[in-house]
């Protein structure tokens, strides 16, 4: 279970406003091997964490490039999965390395959507003249959609599915971003949102989608921040892109599979085309 909360504002009214404010949790088995966020690739152009699970190395759940390409992935909650399906983490890393614009890339992926277990994929291009953000979920519409300016929430169902945990997270997120805080305070307040452990129960929508798989554990998964033995929220990520193309990328990640050990790293750079 993961959560993505974001405000997309491609034409902010003032130079102090943000074109993108994104706050995301990666929920995963604590001991699944992964690299913490850093620049990678031959040119050092792409910034993300990396999955190091055998057979899935090089995939990622969230990343951004200095050229303004951004992508994020969540799995779609299903009672069972196909062990022979293609790995979903490559959907993000391939876009970050590709020259296709976000809509064209998602349109290509939509033609191959049946080869994967359920997923949601956000992809965006932040450019000098125009910002574009698109969404595709292979358990929803057959073609990707362009996102209008606004505040959105995505968990392990389709974009804006009104799960109670997602609605609660959006309320907390909206309250923070509407305060026009300085960047350091904004990041800290968003980290507080991502670590909210208040269960939002009951939630028939999660139970109906997850069926028997989720019934026994829904009480552990029904908060913005998931905490259960061996599985839960192990990475918080905040991405800010301001009106001038300055990017701030903050990752708070768990160390040694220990919920009491965390490392926070911040990267700043300027977008270029």
From TrEMBL:
It comes from Erpetoichthys calabaricus. InterPro entries: TANGO2. One of its GO terms (biological process) is Golgi organization. This is Transport and golgi organization 2 homolog (Drosophila). Signal peptide: none annotated. GO terms for cellular component: Golgi apparatus.
């Amino acid at each position: 279970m993961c959560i993505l909360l974001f405000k997309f504002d491609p034409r902010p009214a003032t130079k102090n406003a943000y074109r993108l404010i994104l706050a995301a949790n990666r929920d995963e088995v604590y001991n699944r091997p992964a690299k913490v966020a850093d620049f990678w690739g031959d040119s050092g152009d792409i910034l993300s964490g990396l999955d190091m699970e055998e057979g899935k190395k090089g995939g990622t759940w969230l990343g951004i490039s200095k050229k303004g390409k951004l992508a994020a992935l969540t799995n779609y909650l299903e009672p069972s999965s196909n062990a022979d399906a293609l790995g979903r983490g490559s959907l993000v890393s391939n876009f970050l390395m590709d020259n296709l614009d976000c809509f064209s890339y998602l349109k290509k992926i939509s033609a191959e959507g049946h080869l994967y277990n359920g997923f949601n994929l956000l992809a965006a291009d932040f450019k000098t003249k125009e910002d574009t953000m698109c969404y595709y979920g292979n358990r929803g519409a057959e073609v990707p959609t362009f996102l209008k300016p606004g505040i959105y929430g995505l968990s392990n169902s389709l974009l804006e599915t009104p799960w109670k945990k997602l609605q609660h997270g959006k309320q907390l997120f909206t309250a923070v971003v509407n305060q026009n805080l300085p960047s350091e305070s904004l990041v800290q307040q968003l980290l507080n949102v991502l670590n909210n452990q208040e269960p939002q129960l009951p939630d028939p929508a999660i139970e109906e989608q997850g069926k028997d798989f989720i019934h026994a554990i829904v009480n552990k998964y029904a908060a913005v921040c998931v905490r259960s033995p061996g599985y839960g929220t192990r990475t918080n990520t905040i991405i800010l892109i301001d009106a001038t193309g300055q990017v701030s990328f903050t990752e708070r990640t768990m160390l040694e599979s220990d919920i009491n050990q965390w490392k926070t790293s911040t990267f700043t750079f300027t977008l270029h085309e």
